[in-house]
Design goal:
234 residues; Rossmann fold; Arc Repressor Mutant, subunit A; 4-stranded antiparallel β-sheet; 8 helices; 38% helix; 21% strand
């Protein structure tokens, strides 16, 4: 069955071009011209991924992202790829903080959009290496098959990409990893110079799994190098 993509984009010409291109690659694309139509479409016909424009006529794309993440059940976990028209890196940082899985600045090449979509969807469904289906560190439990994370029995709210980042660290517990190594481990896009997206995601993960995100005990920062996942945890 072909995967269903929802594109929320007010530029009808761009949406038509992108829909045709993605359609040639086997995707079924639904286009919504504004935020309200997009949110309604997602609730009536769930998508495998949402391509979301940051600048919409009736609602800010960040607010749309927030509303999707607040939807009930599996809808809240729908992968979101945000399109940003501005060059300010704060746009993508804020988008990631709001729960987007990836971003792509405009203007973009359709083939790059296709590559990003495939990468996000692959991260969502692929089996990660490792002998056990569950990883346990004290009260923290990661179920790789169910793609869930629990602390003391309470489910943690993570995006698909953040889950993969956490697993990449947990599978290498005790090893200090650079940002480049972390990006390579999840097979996502290459890390750009001065790109803070990894740091943004780490902050979100810490907020979900740490007792005190300001004094983390599970994911530790190694200044000037990267991060290390603690082997021994409570």
């Amino acid at each position: 069955m072909n995967q269903h993509l929802l594109m929320i984009e007010d530029d009808a010409r761009l949406a038509h071009m992108v829909s045709e291109y993605l359609g040639q690659s086997g995707y079924v694309v639904t286009h919504a011209g504004d935020a309200q139509a997009g949110l309604a479409s997602l609730q009536t016909s769930p998508a495998d991924l949402v391509v979301l424009d940051l600048m919409l006529p009736d609602m800010d794309g960040l607010e749309v992202c927030r509303r999707i993440r607040a939807m009930p059940g599996a809808l809240a976990q729908t992968p979101i790829l945000m399109l940003t028209a501005k060059g300010d890196p704060m746009d993508r940082i804020i988008g990631l903080e709001m729960g987007a899985d990836d971003y792509l600045p405009k203007p973009f090449e359709p083939r790059e959009l296709l590559a990003r979509i495939r990468a996000v969807l692959r991260r969502r469904v692929e089996d990660l290496p490792g002998t056990g289906k569950r990883l346990r560190f004290g009260s923290l439990e990661i179920d790789r098959d169910a793609r869930t994370v629990c602390v003391a029995g309470q489910t943690c709210d993570l995006t698909s990409y953040q889950f993969d980042l956490l697993v990449a660290l947990a599978e290498r517990a005790g090893r200090v990893l650079t940002r480049d190594q972390i990006m390579e481990a999840v097979r996502g896009r290459e890390l750009e110079a001065f790109d803070r997206s990894i740091d943004v995601h780490m902050g979100r993960i810490r907020a979900a799994i740490e007792v005190d995100a300001k004094e983390p005990k599970r994911i530790l920062t190694v200044r000037g190098v990267g991060y290390v996942f603690a082997r021994q945890q409570d």
